[in-house]
Each structure stands twice: as structure tokens, then as C-alpha cells.
Amino acid sequence: MSSPGSRFRAALAAEQPLQIAGAINAYAGLLAQRTGFGALYLSGAGVANHSCGIPDTGQTGLADVLIDARRLTTRLGLPLLVDIDTGWDDPALAVSEMGRVGVAAVHIEDQVPAKVCGHLPGKHLVSTAEMVARVQAAVRGKPDADFVVMARTDAAANEGVAAAIARAEAYVAAGADMIFAEALPTLADYQAFAAALKVPVLANLTEFGKTPYFTVEEMRTSGIAMVLYPLSASRAAAAASLEVYAAIRREGTQHSVLGRMQIRSDLYETLGYTPPK
Fold this sequence. Notes:
By secondary structure, this protein is of the alpha/beta class.
């Protein structure tokens, strides 16, 4: 039986670049799977915002993320990449626990523990040496050789692309299997990362941030191996939910927004459920 990490690596080999869909819960994962995505992602911001109702500022911990990760891996067979922020107090333990619940890959970042969204100003980074130690600890926690430890660098915004690439090279030398290049504004920046590194590079195409909405083909020609859409569907769901709540409150009925809702038979089809006759 293949391991989660080997399934992630197989998905990466089968689709170039690999499109990775963010899923804030198991049902969202089922919808992504239904549309053909080959890998899923659990965002730290998604856990903070949607499961805990708080901003993504380092307030959530390993236990919070494990709950949502376990629900995704229990229900779905797709390999799951999980955001473990800065590794909390013990990156080796964080990776070990993620492996225990069936996660395929994690990414760990080089911000200080009181982190902020990678596309916001005011980011503060740890030194390269401190991040190297985080990566080495994370690698020690791997449950098997195929489990993926991805190192994320937020350095481009603060230190420039060349310095960010130098950091990434140090992280790879420390054992990182792949690199997450955060908040790059141009295709040339991604091309520089992909050309400089001997490991797969991920591009985060989150909305309303510093990175334009590049196409899969543009990413492919830039040498990028993975394209991440961390919260696209959940942003759409939140906007639709607010519209529905407002309509019901305003009109005293849900009639005008029925067309925005998933019908019961589609829900059951997604769940693989046949109701009694």
C-alpha cells in the first residue's frame, strides 16, 4: 500500500504543474475531488479564519490543525499538503503528528512565530540559520522517506528575490524536499527560483495578494512544479453565505436565493449517499 507522501509525489509526476486545491473541511475536499483535482491543501489561515474565527496571526496551534487535517485524510484518498506555520515549538513533533494522521506533505515557513499572511506588509523573518534548524527538525520528524517537507520562504518581499533564492538553497541543503516561494510578483521571479533550485517549487496564487493570477500554462513555462489555490472556494462560499443570510434577514424568506444553493440530490451525490426510498 502506497504512503501518503508517495501519492503526493505521484500526483506531482502526473500533472505539471500540479494544481492543488485548498479545502477548509472534508466536504470542500469532496467537491474539489469531484472536479478532478489530484491533491488538496489545508491552509493555516483557513483553520484560523474558518474553524476558529480568528485572524491568521500565529494564534492557532498543532492541535487545531490536526483536527481539520484528520477529517480530510479520513474521508478522502487525495494526498494532503498542510500548512504548519513556523512549526510551533517543535517542528519534529508537528511533522510526526501530521504523518500519524495521514498527511502527505507539510510546509514550514521562515517568519517569526507571530506571523502574518505572506501577502501583507510588516513580515518579520528569522535568520537563515534559525530556519535551517527548523527544517532539520522537521525532517527528523518524517514518518518515511516519501513524506514531503516543503520549506516556505517569505524573504522576497523583505530582502529581494536573490536573497530569497539563497535562503531557499540553504533550506534545500538542510533537507527540504521542495520549496514554497511566497508572494512573488512576476513570472521572471518564479523563473529565477525554478532555474536556481534542483527541487520542485510551489507558487501560491492566492487572491487579493501580491501575486497576479497567472495561468497554469504561464506557470508551466516558468518551470513551476505546483500551483496552489489555498482559499479560493472558501472565499466564494463566504461571500455567498453572507448574501444568503442577508436576504433571509431582509426578506423573511430564502426564496430569492434558492438558485444560489446546492440542491439536496447534488449533496447526496457528492457524499456518495443513497437515501431510503
